């Protein structure tokens, strides 16, 4: 087992394979998009594979592929096939916006992917278009249907935004009628390439939960997973679950078991830090596996206690979640 300086296990890597995305969600990036990195500044698949092998040997057992949108990078499925064969890696998962995903669902299942996080902030086509600045809701719903038909567990991630989609809480919650579906409502974070939209975040996790309790008075608390970021609930008679994620309030830091690697090779031991290790530079300078392990251990030994401490140690947040890795 691998532990940080606060005795939290580190078992879970969120690996961004690209900073590019085919949507322009306003809470993630400006309408004109962000300045994408040139290809040579991104990690190659071979470099990412080596990093995962080293971390798997240290105790990381789960990798979630993120972006940007993973499927906009060519060769993704070949890379995932390679990852699926790495010793010690017991769980391979993905976060996607679903626009390009449906044709690959059967192959994902063949590779052992049993869980997919699907970003979906509205079931209303016009609101979806306004939020994402693209008219792609039918493609996303097609992916949802394909995933469920293939027996994949789907976590629907919906960012709750004042004046944008708060009327969608009920319609989205209704998706939890189906088995294999967890609908998670997430506090908005400031990672939109511009800084936070609101002087004060009004739709906190407490308000989201209160709204759900008004919509469903019989809402029942169910056990949270050991390293869960969400407070989990169930509507009586529904097969799936609801979750509320305090991503901005940061109430789950004490049990965080995850680290992030951005597409350009920056290690983040907290979502809110500014990056703590340039892994790409180490790789391209010829670092051995032992030197990589030593660098990782040093970074894990100085991990912030929580997201507030991490944010205090950096300049104001201005980057896009697409650059960070979802």
TrEMBL record:
Cofactor(s) demanded: [4Fe-4S] cluster
Pfam families: Mob_synth_C (PF06463), Radical_SAM (PF04055)
Reactions mediated catalytically: GTP + AH2 + S-adenosyl-L-methionine = (8S)-3',8-cyclo-7,8-dihydroguanosine 5'-triphosphate + 5'-deoxyadenosine + L-methionine + A + H(+)
Keyword NAD: no
Functional summary from the UniProt entry: Catalyzes the cyclization of GTP to (8S)-3',8-cyclo-7,8-dihydroguanosine 5'-triphosphate.
Binding site for S-adenosyl-L-methionine: 27, 68, 119, 189
Residues noted as binding [4Fe-4S] cluster 1 in the record, renumbered to the chain: 21, 25, 28
CC cofactor note: Binds 2 [4Fe-4S] clusters. Binds 1 [4Fe-4S] cluster coordinated with 3 cysteines and an exchangeable S-adenosyl-L-methionine and 1 [4Fe-4S] cluster coordinated with 3 cysteines and the GTP-derived substrate.
Subunit and partners: Monomer and homodimer.
Name of the protein this chain belongs to: GTP 3',8-cyclase
Pathway membership: Cofactor biosynthesis; molybdopterin biosynthesis
Family membership noted in the UniProt record: Belongs to the radical SAM superfamily. MoaA family.
Underlying gene: moaA
Matching InterPro entries: Aldolase_TIM, Elp3/MiaA/NifB-like_rSAM, MoaA, MoaA-like, MoaA_NifB_PqqE_Fe-S-bd_CS, MoaA_twitch, MoCo_biosynth_MoaA/MoaC, rSAM
Residues reported in the UniProt entry to bind [4Fe-4S] cluster 2: 253, 256, 270
EC primary class: lyase
Domain Radical SAM core positions: 5-224
Keyword Protease applies: no
One GO BP annotation of this record: Mo-molybdopterin cofactor biosynthetic process
SUPFAM superfamilies: Radical SAM enzymes
Transmembrane segments: none
UniProt: GTP binding residues: 14, 64, 95, 155, 258-260
């Amino acid at each position: 087992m691998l532990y940080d300086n606060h005795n939290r296990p580190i078992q879970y890597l969120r690996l961004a394979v690209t900073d590019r995305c085919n949507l322009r969600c306003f809470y993630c990036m400006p309408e004109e998009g962000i300045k994408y990195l040139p290809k040579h500044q991104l990690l190659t698949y071979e470099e990412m594979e080596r990093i995962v092998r080293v971390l798997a040997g240290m105790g990381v057992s789960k990798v979630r592929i993120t972006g940007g949108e993973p499927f906009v990078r060519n060769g993704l499925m070949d890379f995932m096939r390679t990852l699926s064969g790495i010793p010690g890696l017991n769980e391979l998962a993905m976060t996607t916006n679903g626009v390009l995903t449906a044709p690959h669902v059967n192959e994902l299942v063949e590779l052992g992917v049993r869980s997919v996080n699907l970003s979906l902030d509205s079931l209303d086509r016009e609101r979806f278009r306004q939020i994402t600045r693209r008219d792609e809701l039918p493609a996303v719903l097609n992916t949802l249907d394909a995933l469920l038909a293939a027996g994949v567990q789907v976590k629907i991630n919906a960012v709750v935004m004042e004046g944008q989609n708060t009327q969608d809480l009920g319609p989205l919650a209704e998706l939890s009628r189906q088995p294999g579906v967890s609908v998670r409502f997430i506090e908005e974070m400031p990672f939109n390439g511009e800084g936070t939209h609101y002087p004060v975040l009004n739709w906190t996790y407490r308000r989201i939960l209160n709204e759900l309790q008004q919509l469903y008075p019989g809402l029942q608390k169910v056990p949270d997973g050991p390293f869960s970021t969400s407070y989990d609930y169930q509507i009586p008679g529904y097969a799936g679950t609801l979750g509320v994620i305090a991503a901005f309030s940061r109430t789950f830091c004490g049990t965080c078991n995850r680290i992030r690697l951005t597409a350009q090779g920056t290690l983040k031991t907290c979502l809110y830090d500014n990056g703590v290790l340039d892994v790409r530079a180490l790789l391209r300078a010829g670092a051995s596996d032992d030197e990589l392990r030593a660098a990782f251990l040093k970074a894990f030994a100085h991990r912030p206690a929580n997201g507030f401490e991490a944010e205090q140690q950096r300049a104001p947040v201005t980057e896009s979640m697409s650059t960070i890795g979802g």
